[in-house]
Amino acid sequence: MRPTVHDIAAKAGVSLATVDRVLNGRPGVRAVTRARVEEAIERLGYVRDVAAANLAKGRVYPLVFIIPEGENPFMRGLEAEVRLAATRSSFERTRIAVVHVPPFDAPALAKAIDAAIAEGVAGIAAVAVDAPEVAAAIGRARAAGIAFVTLVSDLAASARDHFCGVDNLAAGRTAGSLMARFLGARPGAVAVLAGSMLVRDHRERLEGFRALMAEAGGGRQVLDVLEGQDEPERARALVGACLVAHPELAGIYSLGAGNAGLVAALEAAGRGDVCVIAHEITEPTRLGLERGVIDAVLNQDAGHEVRSAIRVLRAKADGLPVIAAQERIRIDIFIKENLPQPLDETGTARAAEA
Amino acid sequence: MRPTVHDIAAKAGVSLATVDRVLNGRPGVRAVTRARVEEAIERLGYVRDVAAANLAKGRVYPLVFIIPEGENPFMRGLEAEVRLAATRSSFERTRIAVVHVPPFDAPALAKAIDAAIAEGVAGIAAVAVDAPEVAAAIGRARAAGIAFVTLVSDLAASARDHFCGVDNLAAGRTAGSLMARFLGARPGAVAVLAGSMLVRDHRERLEGFRALMAEAGGGRQVLDVLEGQDEPERARALVGACLVAHPELAGIYSLGAGNAGLVAALEAAGRGDVCVIAHEITEPTRLGLERGVIDAVLNQDAGHEVRSAIRVLRAKADGLPVIAAQERIRIDIFIKENLPQPLDETGTARAAEA
DNA sequence: ATATTTCTGATGTACGTAAATCAGAAATTT
DNA sequence: AAATTTCTGATTTACGTACATCAGAAATAT
């Protein structure tokens, strides 16, 4: 069996209370005694039983996730993952609340952050909007001793503890690389459909994509960005017009949401030959892949991001270090052939990595 | 706070003992009373605190992982993941042992399984070799009430409870699809490098690859399989000879291990133009991607597989159902641009700013 | 109505840790 | 040497559940 605090006490020849003081960094232990206890811990290979410890302290960590409202299917999936994690994590003495804010609305986000601070939560996770007032609110949270992570989209000039999301520059480069390889020698320009240049993740993806297309050579033209506000209808209109204006168009990189409109426009124009690369496995992109309208989808696993955010928030709330490598979110590539089956109706399905 | 057994007892107007009987399916409760208790459980939304429950029962699950020995870097990575999970899972009252067997050696594997049975473990995970004596040993394990999962490579005609690995047919198809797209209209045959046609996962990958290449049209020739036994030196020799015999070779699909040899042969021949698709992110494939010798790597996340195997074994040992969709392992695609950075020896990231 | 079986309540211990209290020992200061 | 401070030990309660025991109540059979 694993050694317990009792074993340490016996081995070090001290009482349980002293072991407890050493283990929990409480004062009242002479340096010599502390060293003896620590040696016993080392020699016995003692590891704290977190379950028992949590049980004993009966502490709960109230966390808040601030997520954009609206129809964006990725955000809705993200929220579903938060709620799923919330039920699971009640075992881990974490209480999770979800708060909605309008998308791309910095003042509303700042207000939501301040509300969470007032509630006295232990940690906040938020999909950041890149604006000074948001950075200021994050500063206030941190000043109040509240852990803060940005989710999906970062905000560099802020005091956030950690960013839970993918390297969007690398994501853009990946999209560019796939586009270049899939198109090969085929001539024609490439269009880019984005949500808004006001969010950092979209800007970074575009930057990475453009950089790689330039490096790839061949002088392929990348057209001006179409900003669809992540809304399917706008995306449909923009892409439809673009297909008319550029009949020779060879590829489209959709780096935001609104992909239902993108697929609709392509199908309406009968342009299944256009090479399309999009982001995030959602209902529209899944259908697009299956029907061959979309060629590849880059994905960030929302479940991973949420669970990582929870781990980081709890660690920060406890003042523990975070192992960055463990929290890195991968950029998944999906094509028709390796597309995982959709979740079942219970919504519980997901390859849990915990 | 979450409701506890005490709350249920109060709500249902019964004693703690009765609640316990209902919760744990013990006899001695009238149907009427049981219904009352169950209603209270329902109404209060009671969920058993697994941590406290495990603590109380103090049960441990001894599990054994049987893994091929040798230099195969994927297997070594798999073993590392098992050991990592072992340290973490001691919290979950699981004790994990690792046993080595020679690769592709059915009698040795059967013997290892029988040894584990004799030890009275609660569950066994093994990288299967597709042979009748192995299936028989699995049958004996199951007959002894021991949970059994196959890991990475399956063995269909056996009594194993579950297979923890990817859909290798789909993996082969994915490789085929990428190969076809990357090559485009470029002429030339495609070679296949495998470990051994005696293991099921390699056979299935080949089948999927061939099927998709046929469907893709263009009449591209797929050469006879080169069997490298997952050994780098053999692979190097086979590929080197193949490059001489087929100067027009356009692509190579490496569906097993020994990729260090593959990369060496390609570099020696100066054939960076050959489109190469390999399996598993390991040191050689990572280097191959970074240097541009390998174009894409399909990966199965060994960590996911191991954790899934542990979850399944524990569930089976407890007689609980497994949600198959939750345990599905994805086929990851990596190219140079979305390759995750390797971890350094401390487990922390090399470049983790963001 | 009595005997018997079946159900239920009350109570206690255990799991491994956290945290508090209080008494006593050791070290330090006066 | 006495007074004080600082350290340490012993002990207890608590967390939420599992599990065992025993007595008593209720239901059923005789």
The helix/strand class of chain A is alpha/beta
Strand content of chain A: 15-25%
Q: Give me the count of strands of chain A.
A: 11
- Based on the structure given, which CATH architecture of the largest domain in chain A is correct? 3-Layer(aba) Sandwich
Uncertain regions spanning at least 5 consecutive residues of chain A: 344-354
The number of domains of chain A: 3
For the biggest β-sheet of chain A, the strand order reads 7-6-8-9-10-11
Number of helices of chain A: 13
**Average pLDDT across residues of chain A?**
90
Shape of chain A: elongated
- Mind telling me the CATH superfamily name of the largest domain in chain A? Response regulator
Please give the oligomerization state of what you see. Answer: homodimer
Biggest interface between protein chains, with counts per chain?
Answer: A-B, 55 and 57 residues
Structural Rg of chain A: 25 Å
Q: Which CATH class of the largest domain in chain A?
A: Alpha Beta
Helix content of chain A: 40-55%
